Structure formats: C-alpha cells, structure tokens
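job 3f2a | input accepted
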Amino acid sequence: MASSSLELKIKISSAKDLKNVNWRHGSLKPFVSAWVELNAKSSTKVDRDGDTSPSWNETLHITVPSPVGDSVLYLEIVHDKADGEDDTKPIVGSALLSLSDVVDHVGFGVDAFRTLELRRPSGRPQGKIDVEISVKDLLHRPSDQYYAYAAPYSVAAPYSVTTPYSATPAAYCAAAVPTASYNAQSVYAYQVPTHYGQQASYVQIVAAANETGAGTETVLDVGAVAGALDGLAIAGSLGPLEDNKHR
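job 3f2a | predicted structure (247 res):
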C-alpha cells in the first residue's frame, strides 16, 4: 500500500459523566485509545486520579491511510484493569467522528473543537469527551496559511522626514557679514607711496575726511585728487631726466 500524505492530529482534553465500570473494586482508572485503522492504535496515559471526570490533555498523531471521505476516527475510553479485577468489563464508552465532517467544516490544517457523546457497549449514551482535531495534507500547504503569511520586512520609511540641514552655520550668521558701521579706513588700508614726493598718504586723507565728517563719496573724490597729484609728481620728477637726456 502506498504511503499516505494525510495525518490526523488530535488533542484529547477531558471527559465527564463516565460510567464507573470498576465500582466493585474502587475508582475508575481510564485512558483513551484512538485509531483510524484498527491495527494502528494510539493511546493516552492513564488518569489515576480523575475517576469519572478524567483529564489527559495529550496530543496524538495518527496516519490516515485512506481518502478523507472514507476515513473515520474511533475513540474508546478504557479502564486500566489491575490484578484482581478480572470480573471488570474494561470498556467505559466509545465515540466516532467522520474526518470528512472536519475537513468540510474548517478545511485542512485547521483545528476543530468537538464534544463527542460517548456510548456504552450496549448503545446507551453516557458521558462526553472533549477533543481538538485537525487533518493535515503533508503534500499541500493550506491556502489560509498563505494569506496569513506575515511580510518579512517592516514598512517603516527608509528615510527620516527631518530637515536635512540644521540651523544656519555660524559662518553665515548676520554678525559675520560686514555692516555699514565700519569706516572706510578699515577697508582701504593701502597707502599711496610717498617716495615720489611729499604728498599725504591715502590713509591720511581718509582719516582726515572721517574727522571732518565727510561722506564716502567725498573720500573717494579726495582719493582721486590724491592720485592725480601723485601722477603730476611723477611727471615732474621725470621731466629733468628727459631734459638731461636731450642735452
């Protein structure tokens, strides 16, 4: 027989209102046996303290050899007989569940909660059992898992929204820009050479203009006059040289 791709996962939680089949010898010591195929049973541990309201909270994995539509889960609660209890009938109750009912209701790979009614071997109902069951197709991923897939990357903006430049650098602040309060003397520091004559320097002219309250235009005019005087002085000094040359 070919290997099956279907697997049944069942969590057996608890049961209640069970028949104490061991009433002659003491309390009930039940466990649960589960199977889809009779020769492949799985069982929980024995609850030795719960009596007729036991708890197991165990998960069993069972291979499903047939198609879902042809598969049925069988559950059977059995008393764990001790020595001297040969007259005790061990079957407490049983239930069954069609796997197609689970898949049609929730699909593959999704847990379904069921409270199943138990029946005594005579067919009379007594007790209930709570289970959580899912059918997994190991070759196909359920579609709902695809849509529940979380994005591996966050959606935070890659760049901050803050202004790329901080406050205006100190080099560009108003204090560093020349203002109208400075005088012409601090700008025109160049002195006119005086070795061509005895003319006053340009700085002296500017300083004198500042002392008399003359404006910038007046200073510039004075500068122009000073330049002209220097030119005449140079021409005067060159005159004798030219005369000597022609002699």
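job 3f2a | Residues 206 and 212 are 10 Å apart (CA to CA).
job 3f2a | closed
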